[in-house]
TrEMBL record, chain B:
Record bears the keyword Lipoprotein: no
Record-annotated ABC transmembrane type-1 domain positions: 80-290
Pfam families tied to this protein: BPD_transp_1
GO molecular function terms listed in the Swiss-Prot or TrEMBL record: phosphate transmembrane transporter activity
Keyword annotations from UniProtKB, A to Z: Cell membrane, Membrane, Phosphate transport, Transmembrane, Transmembrane helix, Transport
Chain segments annotated as transmembrane: 21-42, 75-108, 120-141, 153-175, 271-290
Subcellular location: Cell membrane
Primary localization class, coarse: membrane
Membrane topology field: Multi-pass membrane protein
Biological source species: Lapidilactobacillus dextrinicus DSM 20335
Protein name as annotated: Phosphate transport system permease protein
GO CC annotation, single: plasma membrane
Gene3D superfamilies recorded: MetI-like
Record flagged with keyword Transmembrane: yes
Length: 256, 300
């Protein structure tokens, strides 16, 4: 049991979220195993993005939002008042749904978080740029144009530069909100490859609408409906032996 | 669809046609207005040099203004220096305050910002300059007289009134500039571990910088061209501005003071037109500088 616990880097315990007093997440609990990919699925508007934002407290940035419950990162509840949310966000990196890099150069984008954290060592920054862009599988495409504006890149490339900016912080957990929804199949495939390769160092949580994608890359799937967590299961079990009737309906294509 | 219908243009195309003509006509009127004005000021403004025989160089580098004496002298240096000095000092005071207010409104407290501060700024924007001048005359000038001695009239009073006048101008443009920075950039910086202070300095101000500079340039242009309020507090004697308490005059205040007291065709009148020419050229220059920054913004 003790070994099991160390494998659980992140654990959500009864989280509730209200926007303007309207509850959109109802008492969700879920455990994310270390160095695995968890896919969060469910129809549009069921609360996937909201749930993801609970994990690095970026819901705090929205007005009129109320979060109750606990989220354990290691042995620390990130919702306790003493939490340093700036350090937390460096440990739990997040790539937004359709991320746009800053209107700065590629290099400046990747080192952005490090510089805010006070890192000024030029050598270390350059090294981190290379390793992060490599990990995000975009190094070969941009290594000769690091001083060019990141927004001149294609959509898929921009997404990977944003991923590199997050990886440069060396987080423990990476949250991705539909990272491939706006990409063509080739770019999607290369992001998927990247995520599978990253899994050995990071715990990854990805929101996706794409059943095939979830089956290709995830180890565990959590299925949500109207703010409730309906079913959580290892990927294979989820597809082959879904327990809940709603899950079966979803797999049969009955919701969006 | 039959062929007869296709022969004549549709109603929409005809409307489009008329719309275009109207646009061209309006643009034409504006262009004509601009050209006439430039021609008018140019042709009158260069008479000082072409007809009255004053050297351009002398006009720009001396500061005696005695166009009606037996040995007439017109030197605009004191006026030009005072105009620049009051304007730049006003901008140096107003710009940082305006940007801090804008940060407060857009980032720190949007509720108080949009419900209280922004309406106040808009109200101040609409107050005519003569009111600012009157406030300066009845409150600022006596205050300066009591605190620093002298008459109270002068550059200090002028620049403070100008700073007060351009504060709402720069603030309102700065608020727009900061609002123009997409929220997604803030959020991205926050998720990379940024504090609010870092989001302001590393993201918002950095991205808005070209627009903020444009805001300040518009403020400067307004201050440079302002006549009435300045004239009321600056003292209206022509002297080189040696210190902040010197009573002196600016290009605009000299123009408003004297334009009714001169006869067309005389040196005294032509020299005033030359001052107007300098003002016109300066406002063109401010426009060009602002355009440069606008271009840079589009590129980044
Ligand atoms: N900032 C907000 N303020 C108010 N309500 C919100 C806000 N963000 C989301 N909601 C509401 O919360 C519910 C869940 O939204 P959320 O964005 O988490 O859904 P989602 O599952 O990510 O949907 P999608 O697949 O379309 O991205 C929705 O009813 C939505 O209208
Ligand atoms: Mg979403």
């Amino acid at each position: 049991m003790i070994t099991m616990k160390s494998e659980q880097l992140l654990r959500v315990e009864g989280i509730n979220v209200k926007y303007n007093n309207r509850e959109v997440l109802h008492n969700l609990s879920l455990t994310f195993p270390k160095h695995q990919i968890t896919a969060i699925m469910g129809p549009s508007g069921c609360g996937k993005s909201t749930f993801l934002r609970c994990l690095n407290r970026s819901n705090d940035l929205l007005p009129e939002v109320e979060v109750h419950g606990k989220v354990w990162l290691g042995d620390q509840n990130i919702y306790q008042p003493r939490t340093n949310i700036y350090q937390l966000r460096a440990r739990v990196g997040m790539v937004y749904q359709q991320p746009v890099p800053f209107p700065f150069t590629i290099f400046e984008n990747v080192v952005f978080g490090l510089k805010m954290a006070g890192q000024t060592d030029a050598k270390l920054l350059a090294m981190r740029v290379e390793s992060s862009l490599k990990a995000a599988a975009i190094w070969d495409e941009v290594k000769d144009r690091l001083q060019e504006p990141a927004q001149a890149l294609s959509g898929g490339q921009q997404q990977r530069v944003c991923l590199a900016s997050v990886l440069a912080m060396q987080p423990e957990v990476i949250l991705l909100d539909e990272p491939t929804s706006a990409l063509d199949p080739t770019s999607s495939a290369s992001i998927e490859q990247t995520l599978i390769a990253l899994k050995k160092d990071y715990t990854i949580i990805i929101v996706t609408h794409n059943l095939q994608q979830a089956s290709r890359i995830s180890d565990q799937i959590a299925f949500m409906l109207n703010g409730d967590l309906i079913e959580t299961a290892p990927t294979k079990t989820f597809f082959l032996q879904p327990q809940q009737p709603q899950t079966q309906d979803y797999l049969a294509g009955k919701f969006g | 669809m039959n062929l007869v219908e296709l022969k004549s243009p549709s109603k929409e195309i005809r409307q489009d046609h008329w719309g275009k003509i109207l646009c061209y006509a309006a643009t034409g009127v504006l262009l004509l207005l601009l050209l006439t004005m430039m021609y008018f000021v140019f042709s009158k403004g260069i008479r000082t040099f072409t007809v009255d025989g004053v050297k351009v160089w002398k006009f720009l580098t001396t500061s005696q203004w005695e166009p009606t004496s037996t040995t007439p002298k017109v030197g605009a240096l004191a006026l030009i220096s005072t105009s620049f000095l009051t304007t730049i000092l006003a901008a140096v005071i107003a710009a940082p305050i305006a940007i801090i207010i804008a940060i407060y409104v857009v980032v720190i407290d949007t509720k108080i910002g949009t419900k209280l501060i922004q309406p106040i700024v808009e109200l101040l924007l609409g107050i005519p300059s003569v009111v600012y001048g009157f406030v300066g005359l009845t409150m600022l000038v006596p205050l300066i007289r009591r605190s620093f001695g002298g008459t109270g009239f002068g550059i200090l009073a002028g620049m403070l009134i100008l700073a007060l006048m351009i504060l709402p101008t720069i603030t309102s443009l700065a608020i727009e500039s900061l609002r123009g920075v997409d929220r997604s950039y803030w959020n991205f910086a926050y998720t990379l571990g940024g504090t609010t202070w870092q989001v302001i300095t590393h993201v918002i101000l950095k991205i808005a910088a070209p627009n903020l500079i444009i805001a300040v340039i518009y403020g400067i242009a307004r201050a440079f061209g302002e006549a009435l309020a300045v004239q009321m507090v600056i003292g209206n004697t022509i002297q080189m501005p040696i210190n902040l308490l010197t009573p002196t005059a600016t290009l605009t205040s000299k123009l408003t003071t004297d334009i009714g007291n001169t006869v067309a065709g005389t040196l005294a009148n032509d020299a005033l037109w030359s001052l107007a020419l300098i003002l016109l050229l300066m406002s063109l220059a401010f426009n060009l500088i602002a355009k440069r920054f606008a271009k840079r913004r589009v590129k980044s």
